[in-house]
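Box 3.1 A note on notation
Throughout this textbook, protein chains are presented in two layers. The first layer is the amino acid sequence; the second is a token string describing backbone geometry. Keep the layers aligned when reading.
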Amino acid sequence: MSDCRRRRRTRARMSGRQLLLLQAALAGGVITALVIKEFPGIVRELRIFRMTGGPGANRRYP
């Protein structure tokens, strides 16, 4: 019986590599969700930046 219990415990454990992959997948999912959520605002800011002339417009807009 103790042999059977020992096998179940080893199957339930997660290796360090599996844990790192899980954390990387979770972090990637969160970052992807944030980029998708903020994408319209980023596009709007880029349009405003282009309309004002970009980095070379320092003389026109002090």
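DSSP finds two helices and no strands in the chain. The two ends are 80 Å apart (CA to CA).
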